[in-house]
Structure formats: structure tokens, C-alpha cells
Amino acid sequence: MIGSARCRSARRSCGGIFDLPARQARLEELEQVSADPALWEDRERAETLLREKAGLERDLRFYEQTARMLSDAETLIELAEEAEDAEPVEEASTTCERIEPLLEEAELRRKLGGEHDAYDAIVSLNSGAGGTDASDWCEILLRMYLRWCEGHGFETEILDVAEGEEAGLKGVTFVVRGDHAYGWLRSEIGVHRLVRISPFDAQKRRQTSFASLSMLPDIGDDVTVEIDEKDLRIDTYRAGGAGGQHVNRTDSAVRITHLPTGIVVQCQNERSQHKNKASAMKVLKARLYDRARREHAEEVARLGGEKKAIDFGSQIRSYTIHPSQRVKDHRTGCEIGNAQAVLEGELDPFIHAYLMQEAEA
Questions:
Q1: Cα dihedral sign, 112-115-118-120
Q2: Most buried in the list 86, 237, 241, 247, measured by CB within 10 Å?
Q3: How far apart are CA 109 and CA 106, in angstroms?
């Protein structure tokens, strides 16, 4: 059971974790800004500020709830220590059991202090080795992440999708919007491996297939990236694919090629060519920023004589459906025996284990 001293210590430390004065000051500032009708003249900026405001309100509610429960637990524990009967002890024990998950969540939130953790995320899934099974696996992963996002209150928007030749997806790009979306999901970057009986094999043989997840922070207007219009080739085309939940058929899909780097981005989600171009430019900006950041890091490593392994492309997690049911993360050792639950979006144990391991490194 949590002791009264730990409750007092935890209550004090929560204020430090959440930096209450700074958050309250920023919330007051955003409340004033959001009350100005002129804010909606720039809808994208307005939505960004309102998401930030909602995130601050959520953090402050969480702090108030945690601090109140810790204070109650502290009082109950002191009563239990003085009591001669079991009732106060049992009540204090029950309260402490309810507090433990809140303290763990507060600790996890403290881990999300990376340079880009607070940003929205631009996520790309691509099928790898495994043919049609890999394309199907890519679509299964998309569903898994959309389910996880839905369960955590994140908004998602699919920007572009490439259908597989027979089934599934060759690739898909989507945006995840919400409080620290990039920070929560960056643990998923890498190659995901699936082992199962192939539904596309008439002989019902076991098949191993791969798909990769890459991700960029949606830097929005926070970072200036100079893009010369002369360096861009912009093509428009009719959105293809099967339609339905993945793509809207339009005549206004946009593909942008950045000629100096060869980076190609495209968006076909909106019916408006203008909106598709704006979304594609946002992804291009994020990719150019990420490229510049990686080149700088590589130059620093070169000058310092340090050689670092490139992590992208390494297998981070295996999902086995046959002969047994299990999902194992090869970085943290976290393993779950119910693979179906994981594929339905139960990813928190893996994400939490990664964040805790990263913090201890």
C-alpha cells in the first residue's frame, strides 16, 4: 500500500511534472485568443490552438483529480495508522489501488518531453516482403492503429492510400491529431513482422510477411522550411483505388515532387484540389525538415567519429497467429499472449514499456 509520506511526495512532484504555473498561464492566454472571432479567419490556426487548449484543460483536470485522490489517500492512511479496526485500513488500501494507475500515467506523461513529442503525427505504413500477405498485413496494421487512436480520443485523417494488386494496401499515409500524438506513437517506428496461415495460399501454408511504419512530427508553422516554388513539380490526377473507407473518388488528387531531393508526396483525401495541395505541402515540409535534421545529426556523428546504427528497417515486433497466439516486442521484451486483442488496438503495454525503457537508458 502507498504510504502517507509517498502520497505527500507524489502530490508535490505532480505539480512539478505538470509545471502548473506555466500551463495555467498558457491556458489563460489561449482562452483570451479563442474568444476573439477574428481567430477563425485562419481556420487551421484556430483548430490548432483549440486542440492545444483542450489538451491543457485535460492535463489540468488530470492533475486536479490526482492531487485530490492523493490528499484523500494521505488522510485515510493517517487514520488507518491510528485505527484499531480494519475498516479504515481497507478503505485506504482501496483508494491507493485506484491511485497507482494514475501515478503510472503521470510518470508516463513526464516521459513525453522529447523535442517533437507534443506534435501531431504524420504516419506512413508500407508493405514489405511477403507479396499479397504483406499488403493485407499493411491494411491490418492500419486498422490496428486507427482502433488505438479511436480508443484514446485521437482524430485521424487518411491523406493517401495505394491499394494492393490483389488485396490490402501497398501503402497509406494518415495524420493523427491529439495531445502528444507523436510522443505516444514514436515507439511504433520500424518493421512489424506477421506469422500466420496465409488466407491467400490454397495449401494453407504458414507465411511470414512484413510491413514498416515511419512517422514524422506535423511541425505546422512552428518551424520555417524554405521551399522554392520553382523546385516543385505539381501534378493533378483522379483519385483511384477501391474507395469506401480509405479514399474518396475525386478529380483533384495532388502529387508534389520536390526536384532537388526527389521527395514525392501526394494527397487524395479531399474533394478540393486546394485542400489536397495544402495537405501535401504540409507533408513535404515535414519530410524536408526531417531530412535536414537527419543530415545534421549524421554530420555531427561524422565529425565526432561516432558510428550509429540506422534503426529504420530493423524488426521491432513480431505478431504470431500460428502456431501460437502471441505478440512480442524485441526491444523491450514485452510479450502478450492475446494477439487478437493487440490487433484490435490494445497497444498500451508495448508503448508504455518502450517509454519506460527509454527513460531508464
A1: negative
A2: 247
A3: 5
- According to DSSP, the β-strands at 315-320 and 190-197 are parallel
Residue 106's nearest CA partner among 11, 181, 42 is: 11
Name the residue among 273, 269, 204, 263 with its Cα closest to residue 235: 273
Q: What is the pTM of this model?
A: 0.70
Note whether 123 and 260 are same-domain residues.
Answer: yes
CATH number at residue 41: 1.20.58.410
CB burial of 77-92 (b: ≥16 within 10 Å; e: otherwise) equals beebeeeeeeebbebb
Residue type (1 letter), 151: G
Same domain, 173 and 274: yes
Return the SS3 of 282.
helix
Q: Which residues, listed in sequence order, are joined to residue 319 by a DSSP beta bridge?
A: 194, 327
Which residue in the block uniquely carries the three cell numbers 508504455?
352
Domain boundary among 94, 111, 128: 111
**Which cell numbers hold the place of 75?**
488522510
Grid cell for residue 321: 497467429
Q: Do 128 and 106 lie in a common domain?
A: no
**What domain count does the chain have?**
2
Residue 133, phi then psi, degrees to nearest 5: -60, -40
Kindly state whether residues 355 and 240 are assigned to the same domain. yes
Judge if 96 and 153 occupy the same domain. Answer: no
Is 240 in the same domain as 336?
yes
Distance in angstroms between the alpha carbons of the first and the last residue of the chain = 28
Domain that holds residue 40: 4-111
Are residues 79 and 132 located together in one domain of the fold? no
